[in-house]
Amino acid sequence: MSSTFHSVAIEALNLDEADRLRLAAELIDSVDGPADPGWDEAWLTEIQARRDRGTADAIPWAEARARVLRRLSAS
Predict the structure, then answer these.
(1) Closest to 19 measured CA to CA, from 11, 61, 30, 32
(2) How confident is residue 62, by pLDDT bands cut at 50, 70 and 90?
(3) Most buried of 20, 40, 54, 59, CB within 10 angstroms?
(4) Measured between alpha carbons, how far is 29 from 20 in angstroms, rounded to an integer?
(5) SS3 track for the chain
(6) Share of the chain above pLDDT 90, in %
(7) By C-alpha distance, which of 69, 45, 42 is closest to 56?
(8) Is the pLDDT reported for residue 75 higher than 70?
(9) d(Cα 9, Cα 31) in Å, to the nearest integer?
(10) How far is CA 35 from CA 28, 32, 74, in A?
């Protein structure tokens, strides 16, 4: 980890929650590329199909968030 990254990360973590969320969204947008106009509809169709087949397990947001954070911390 570079010293620049480390210092920026420390500053970012000291922001209030709203600013951290805004920063996270901006960072994701900066690497995500342009939006695919059909993506939302396709994904909603897929989710509904998985639910109908019984292959989609809904989990609480807190658990989903914890899984993501564990994966990120393992990187």
Answers:
(1) 11
(2) very high
(3) 20
(4) 14
(5) CCHHHHHHHHHHHCCCHHHHHHHHHHHHHHHHCCCCCCHHHHHHHHHHHHHHHCCCCCCCHHHHHHHHHHHHHHC
(6) 57
(7) 45
(8) no
(9) 17
(10) 12, 8, 28
Residue 1 has pLDDT above 80, yes or no: no
For helices 3-13 and 17-32, give the axis angle rounded to 10 degrees: 140
pLDDT attached to residue 64: 92
Tens of pLDDT, residues 21-44: 999 989 988 888 787 889 999 999
Annotated domain spans of the chain: 3-74
Give CA–CA dist 26/24, Å, rounded: 5
Closest CA to 24 of 39, 9, 5: 9
